[in-house]
Design brief:
Elements (H helix, E strand, L loop, with lengths): L2 H7 L4 H8 L3 H9 L9 H11 L9
Length: 62
């Protein structure tokens, strides 16, 4: 399961996730569309997203 699936499952928009996590919405979009592969996420970014979405950081890589 990737970022988009986890975010949608939680009922959160990209804008809401950006506000809650402190990660700019364009960065979230780039991760979701593959412009920035999840494998290349900085650890702090992955941890912020996982914390905000209440999921394991490894889930963001699939």
């Amino acid at each position: 399961m990737g970022l988009r699936e986890i975010r949608k499952r939680r009922g959160i928009t990209q804008a809401m996730l950006a506000e809650l996590s402190g990660i700019p919405r364009p960065n979230i979009s780039d991760i979701e569309t593959g412009k920035k592969p999840a494998e290349q996420l900085w650890l702090v970014t992955a941890l912020k997203l996982a914390d905000t979405l209440d999921c394991d950081p490894h889930e963001l890589l699939h």
